[in-house]
Write a structure and sequence with these properties.
The chain has eleven helices and 14 strands. With 305 residues, the chain is of the alpha/beta class. The chain folds into two domains: 222 residues, Rossmann fold; 72 residues, Alpha-Beta Plaits (2-Layer Sandwich). It is elongated and about 80 Å long. It binds adenosine-5'-triphosphate (ATP) and magnesium ion. The site of magnesium ion has 4 residues, from helix 1.
Length: 305
């Protein structure tokens, strides 16, 4: 908990009164992690990022960065430690990469020419540094955007869908850059995406949002393991302890009591019917069976095509 670089609790936000775009959001980004923020289009990824950076005003809840609450007093100091790239970087097309970096450096304190060369090297744009940005590919522009965000040597980098619109080569280059930044400099990286496959390749941690709510947050390792157990169901019966015993006897392992309900993972909907049949055959009365989360459906939403 203490090691979280971003820590969000019960965050609420809406653009209009009629709809909540972000609802009771919780989010924990451990120091040194590459955190994938995953969700389908319109789920609220960009909105959450804007809230983290204080570009939108939250309605309630807390956002802490580097264990400090974000407010008018702490904002500047905190943001000095963060590099961010939201959607497309704003670049001067008619200027070259070095001039773009010089202008960006002039808005920040204590950034010398050496640092400009360093960031060009990190994002692998040294050979193109004298080229006008209008001749850049989208991938090069994205990397220059990241170079700008790296100028002040941030401890945390926030990237909103940095691979959007890139070709396969651009995607691989972006992936390598992200991994490198994390490995070589220990930078914590928060990266949003709508593709599960992308997050699985680069990230150590994952948070999945849907309709403005966090529905799954864990390590990528745990996510890969939970893919075999797709559906979690909650069962309300007249005999909870017996329910668990009976399930155990029928080789349905790892049921648990949670919030007064028996919880168990099943592989598919057929297995839900099987569980009901087992319990009924043992004279257990069932009041309710509900699907707590269906990771399979969730993952399908987040897969190409
Ligand atoms: N400026 C705005 N005014 C009103 N509603 C907005 C605004 N920006 C976003 N929304 C709405 O808020 C919700 C979340 O949008 P957001 O852009 O955060 O999603 P996202 O996960 O980043 O989606 P995408 O993958 O398409 O980038 C959507 O329903 C969207 O229509
Ligand atoms: Mg977005």
């Amino acid at each position: 908990m203490d090691k979280n670089i971003i820590d969000i609790k019960n965050l609420n936000f809406s653009y209009k009164k009629t709809h909540k775009e972000i609802e009771d959001m919780v989010l924990h980004v451990p120091k040194g992690s590459i955190y994938g923020f995953l969700g389908p289009n319109g789920a609220g990824k960009s909105t959450t990022i804007r809230l983290i950076l204080g570009l939108l005003k939250k309605h309630s809840g807390t956002v802490a960065l580097f264990r400090e609450k974000f407010n008018a007093k702490t904002r500047i100091e905190i943001l000095n430690k963060v590099g961010a790239l939201i959607e497309n970087p704003s670049l001067y097309d008619h200027l070259n990469a070095v001039d773009n970096l010089r202008i960006a450096a002039s808005y920040r304190q204590h950034i010398g020419h050496d640092r400009i060369n360093e960031v060009l090297e990190i994002v692998n744009l040294v050979n193109a540094k004298k080229k006008n940005v209008k001749e850049f590919s989208l991938g090069m522009k994205q990397r220059l955007g990241i170079a700008i965000s790296l100028l002040s040597n941030p401890e945390l980098i926030i990237l909103d869908e940095p691979t959007n619109g890139l070709d396969p080569k651009g995607i691989i280059e972006m992936r390598m850059l992200i991994t490198d930044l994390n490995k070589k400099y220990g930078t914590t990286i928060f990266i949003s995406s709508h593709l599960l496959s992308e997050i699985e390749k680069t990230c150590t941690h994952v948070g999945i949002i849907r309709n403005g709510k966090m529905v799954y947050e864990d390590t990528v390792k745990a996510l890969k393991e939970s893919k075999g157990k797709n559906i979690t169901i909650e069962i309300d019966t007249d005999k909870h302890v017996d329910t668990m015993k009976v399930l155990e006897q029928h080789n349905k392992k790892d049921s648990a009591m949670l919030n007064g309900l028996v919880q168990i993972d099943v592989e598919d909907k057929e297995e839900i019917i099987e569980v009901i049949d087992i319990l009924r055959s043992c004279n257990i009365n069932i009041y309710q069976v509900s699907i707590k989360n269906n990771l399979e459906d969730l993952f399908l939403e987040l897969t190409e095509n």
